[in-house]
UniProtKB/TrEMBL annotation:
The name this protein goes by in its record: DNA-directed primase/polymerase protein
Any GO BP annotation: response to UV
EC number: 2.7.7.102
One of the record's GO cellular component terms: nucleus
């Protein structure tokens, strides 16, 4: 019941967020749709109606105010009409975005970015190629689909300060059922990449603590949350000059003979043909390995529940709960584990923040027993983002478990619906794996901790 109310609250929030910002022509569109639905009943008629509705789409357009600032408006138009406008308008004046509406199908898209200054070792184009190899492998694994290079549209709006590309993957006759499913799929791609995609250094947040820059992926996961505005080809952001244009690779490679109009239409992620097969991801995600018995996770959750009272007045204090301490560990081994666990706080906060696209801080550390596993409860706006549902929970928080023997970490969740969920195990940084390399000093992990060996697989 609570769950349902939460969801409704969220939906309402999303609606008011998308309508309050500006003039909005969504209303007449919805009204027309429901009136039409009432009068059509025969199948053929309904089908024609569906096509008619789909012919008019909602876009977000940034317009320049007198003061020079930009504000967002919404407009409804057909793709051909928008193309005619685009053909006759200079790209520097085009600030159009598709509105990816909640629960609607969309083609697989990626927002890729990193800061070259922080990543002199990263070859962006080569990394896009590696990403697409992993995407192809997961498309085959999950859906038995083959990714042909001709299906891939790559748009670039990089500047010297930022590598920035959009990918649209146009799988013939297929689309994702919604961008929540898409986010799950992309999370699987990253998790299954064996850290080959986690090679990008991100900007340190102010006050982010020590530990040096951490490695992440160049894939922005925030774009799979609901009601996103997705910049269209030929467009730049209001007040900026970097226009999204085809790179001349993949679908637009020399000799491919793809027209400007085709690039425009095929890079629209909401431009899904009415009878496309819609791709879903299983819910909840299958977990890796046979060791998901929940023993360690349950211990972790229990330790967290008991530890949450220790919050300091600033709300960001990290405490060390040792209630579940493993009797197999010697006191100095516990001290070493504790030191590593505290050192990993900035890493955990970084990955939590990156996944959520909003700040998340560690609140409590809890030793879980079972070898060298430590749970991190989280706080902050980004602490609700859960990979299981591909979006933030309204009130429940996620938590992370790091395995300092296995050199991996995973996301779990306090939401009752996610009780049996944990994400794939992801690698910790090399600096945080000292315990693993010096594992000879520790007793062998108890059988309940043997999940670590299976954990490195997605
Ligand atoms: Zn969850």
């Amino acid at each position: 019941m609570q769950q349902q109310e939460d969801q409704e609250g969220e939906a309402q929030q999303a609606v008011s967020a998308s309508t309050s910002s500006s003039i909005c022509s969504l209303q007449p569109l919805e009204a027309a749709a429901s009136t039409a639905a009432a009068v059509k009943s025969v199948a053929a008629g309904a089908e024609a109606e569906e096509r008619r509705q789909e012919a008019v789409r909602t876009f977000c357009v940034e317009r320049r105010a007198r003061g020079g600032t930009y504000y967002r408006t919404f407009t409804a138009a057909s793709y051909p009409a928008v193309w005619q406008l685009f053909r006759h308008t200079a790209p520097k004046d085009l600030h159009w975005y598709e509105v990816i509406r909640e629960g609607r199908p969309a083609h697989l898209y990626f927002d890729l970015e990193f800061v070259p200054r922080l990543n002199p070792q990263v070859d962006g184009e080569a990394l896009v190629d590696v990403l697409l190899q992993h995407v192809a492998a997961q498309l085959r694994r999950h859906f038995d689909l083959i990714l042909d290079p001709r299906f891939v549209y790559e748009l670039d709006s990089s500047t010297p300060n930022k590598f920035s590309r959009h990918l649209t993957l146009r799988l013939p006759g297929h689309a994702f059922s919604n961008n929540h499913a898409m986010g799950k799929f992309v999370a699987q791609v990253l998790a299954a990449s064996d850290s080959k995609l986690l090679v990008v250094r991100k900007e340190q947040e102010p006050g982010g603590g020590g530990g040096g820059p951490q490695l992440g992926s160049m894939v922005d996961m925030a774009v799979y949350s609901k009601n996103r505005h997705w910049r269209m080809s030929r467009c730049c952001k209001g007040g900026k000059e970097a226009v999204l244009h085809p790179t001349g690779r993949y679908a637009t490679a020399p000799g491919a003979g793809v027209s400007d109009a085709t690039v425009f239409l095929d890079t629209l992620v909401c431009n899904v043909e009415p009878h496309a097969r819609l791709l879903q991801m299983p819910d909840p995600l299958p977990t890796a390995g046979p060791n998901n018995r929940g023993g360690v996770g349950m211990l972790g959750a229990a330790a967290l529940q008991s530890g949450i009272g220790g919050l300091g007045s600033c709300g960001l204090q990290v405490t060390w709960k040792q209630g579940a301490i493993d009797t197999a560990l010697l006191p100095d081994q516990v001290a070493e584990l504790r030191r590593l666990a505290e050192e990993a706080v900035s890493f955990i906060e970084k990955v939590a923040t990156q996944r959520a696209g909003a700040p998340a801080r560690a609140r409590t550390l809890a030793f879980c027993g079972g070898g060298a596993k430590v749970a991190y409860s989280m706080i902050g706006p980004g602490s609700h983002y859960c990979e299981n549902i591909g979006r933030p929970h309204t009130s429940n928080h996620v938590f992370f478990v790091a395995d300092f023997l296995g050199g991996t970490y995973t996301q779990k969740c306090h939401d009752p619906d996610c009780a049996h969920f944990r994400s794939a195990w992801m690698p910790l940084t090399a600096e945080l794996c000292r315990l693993a390399t010096g594992a000879a000093a520790l007793p062998p992990p108890s059988p309940s901790a043997s999940g670590r060996s299976a954990g490195t697989r997605g």
